[in-house]
Amino acid sequence: MTLSERSLVLLAALAVWFGLDFVGAPGLVSREALVSPAGAMMAALAIIAILGVMRVRLSAALFLAALALWAALQIETHWATYLLVDASESKLRWYERVFGDNWRFLPLIAGRTTPDGYHAILAGLILVNMVSALADCLRKATSNVQ
Which of 38, 59, 74, 97 is the most interior residue, by most CB within 10 Å? Predict the structure, then answer.
């Protein structure tokens, strides 16, 4: 279950977009410290990329697991209170304080947190990478069956 070239290219695109979080882009994303949970995720992406380039077995499964964890964190932080349930007053205030000045393209919904454009695109990249990593895992699994 090694990472395909497609997955490595998609991982690179994800890392470049996510890297904006560490340099900051006014109106798009604020700057985050390298020593942070986001920094740990960037380190994990770098390690997985190295394992993928080295064609290490299970690199696709490891990438898929990391992406699933990241997706769960993104859903809890940005998407559950936009798509599923109303946000508490404290979460609305926090979200507006942290992400309120950032560019958005999704429609505003009263009582809900609206993900900013950076996190909407990040979510799309995470999803596309998950599909590619899953395809890599299944490709190996089906080739073992034959």
Answer: 59
